[in-house]
Design goal:
Elements (H helix, E strand, L loop, with lengths): L2 H18 L3 H11 L6 H12 L1 H10 L11 H16 L5 H15 L4 H16 L9
Length: 139
């Protein structure tokens, strides 16, 4: 499984959590039992990491969505931002540009017509404020 596929799985898990509010462990267990869905190790790691750090992640998102609140964001946008901000803040093996690009691509697939540019703007602001320049570590 590629990192891109695992990232998409993580997004789906975080979207399910944003919609239903269940703990990630419960979502993972249910996915495996009821849907025969076994997420890749990165998908599980990212989804659990985003949940574990959700308070800080949501704070950072809130600081960068000027004029909006988290409750006004679509669940797709919220899940995408949570995943990407998790990667930006907690996974230094992924260059910020890769995290941002992948979130934008997922927004194009799953979001509305303006979601990709919105996600790009918010994440660029987050990266500028929170990410020291990193060497490309390859993806």
């Amino acid at each position: 499984m590629t990192r891109r596929q695992a990232r998409e799985q993580a997004f789906c898990l975080l979207f399910e959590q944003a919609v239903g509010g269940a703990p990630m462990e419960e979502i993972l267990q249910s996915a495996q039992e009821a849907r025969d869905f076994v997420p890749g190790s990165y998908a599980e790691e990212a989804a659990l990491g985003a949940e574990r750090n959700q308070g800080n992640i949501d704070k950072v998102i809130g600081e960068n969505i000027r004029g909006w609140s988290l409750t006004r964001l679509s669940k797709v946008t919220l899940a995408l931002l949570r995943l990407a901000v998790y990667e930006l803040l907690y996974d230094d093996t992924i260059p910020p540009s890769v995290s941002i690009n992948e979130a934008v691509e997922l927004a194009k697939t799953y979001g509305g017509k303006d979601d990709a540019s919105y996600v790009n703007g918010v994440l660029a602001s987050v990266a500028k404020a929170h990410c020291a320049p990193r060497e490309n570590s390859g993806e």
